[in-house]
Design brief:
This protein has 6 helices and 14 strands. By secondary structure, it is α/β, with parallel strands linked by helices. The longest helix has 17 residues.
Length: 332
């Protein structure tokens, strides 16, 4: 891959992979019990592993350069679920080709002595280039440590820098909100400025919708305004997220033009009450001439039109993005 060749990235999110049975009594908590009731009442019929398998099979045929998974691989964050998700990630591709950020269902409740999503450490770690930028790129913390200490991470593909953020941490029952935290936001701002100086296309992946307009207090990012302030000062070229189980495309203000923020429907969904027709899906994002004034981004969406139907093309469009010029990411 040459520095300015086209780079393709596949984005999928919110698999909520069903798993037979539940957990041993020691894993029952009030939140998990309520979540299990909710699963039995409706979500169980909204998600199907067969849909995820069909999406992944079609995605792999396209042979993207990289795959981004923006969280909620599991339903209750149980150790057995996390183990299953690890096996799924291994089948999806090597950690050098797959990047993951955790979702709120993956970090559902505190796991005490269990390592939780640290099982996915190889998929949530900076590459050699990213590790050279900041001392924050360390192995995931031991049990009991704050997983946010390992974020952001950075991976480079040609002139594209992928930045992984963690917005998920245990929340009370009936709350699915997220928090980045000031430490992660400060690190992010420093990284974005350094990557701009290096004339790289900055692509952020995060689970929660990162703008106030995209989710309410119980489900949204609690420090969305602070995140928007970071983008306003430092800029980015593209932000990808999940969590809402719907397709959205908005922009937020950057220092030299708007920053696209794209959300995606759940990869395992076969029934959606929130947005009829938004079934299992992935996006294929092609970035041409990244890091140059001629940078262009194209998005093609693939997914299901009916629960048992084939994976088909759903969307095909250009995404206006900022462009690099003389070390400053300027608006198009």
């Amino acid at each position: 891959m040459t520095a300015n060749s086209a780079i393709t990235l596949a984005h999928l999110s919110d698999l909520h992979m069903p798993r037979p049975g539940f957990a041993s009594p020691r894993h029952w908590t009030i939140k998990r019990s309520l979540g299990y009731i909710n699963w039995q009442r409706g979500r169980k019929r909204a998600f199907a592993r067969e849909a995820t398998d069909a999406i992944v099979a079609d995605l792999l045929k396209k042979a993207p350069d990289h795959i981004a998974v923006t969280g909620d691989l599991t339903n209750f964050g149980l150790p057995d679920e996390l183990d299953d998700a690890t096996k799924w990630l291994t089948a999806l591709g090597p950690s050098s080709k797959v990047s993951v950020v955790p979702g709120n269902h993956d970090i559902y409740v505190p796991l005490r002595s269990d390592i939780g999503t640290a099982r996915w450490a190889e998929y949530m770690r900076s590459d050699q280039y990213g590790a050279s930028l900041t001392a924050a790129m360390n192995p995931l913390p031991p049990p009991g440590g704050d997983i946010r200490d390992a974020f952001p991470y950075v991976r480079r593909m040609g002139n594209v820098a992928l930045i992984g953020l963690n917005s998920s941490l245990p929340m009370p029952p009936f709350v699915a909100a997220g928090v980045l935290g000031q430490q992660q936001l400060d690190r992010l701002e420093d990284l974005l400025k350094q990557l701009a100086k290096n004339q790289l296309f900055r692509l952020i992946i995060v689970h929660h919708p990162p703008l106030k307009s995209l989710a309410g207090y119980r489900r949204g990012l609690r420090d969305a305004n602070q995140f928007a302030d970071v983008l306003r000062r430092a800029g980015a070229e593209l932000v990808l997220h999940g969590h809402n189980h719907t397709n959205t495309s908005v922009t937020t203000e950057g220092p030299n033009g708007p920053v696209p923020v794209i959300g995606i429907a759940a990869a395992g969904m076969v029934k959606n009450h929130k947005q009829p027709g938004a079934l299992a899906r992935y996006n294929l994002i092609t970035i041409n001439d990244a890091g140059t004034p001629n940078c262009q981004v194209h998005l093609t969406g693939y997914g299901l039109l009916s629960p048992n139907g084939p994976v088909v093309e759903l969307e095909n469009r250009d995404v206006p993005v900022g462009r690099a010029d003389l070390g400053v990411m300027a608006g198009a």
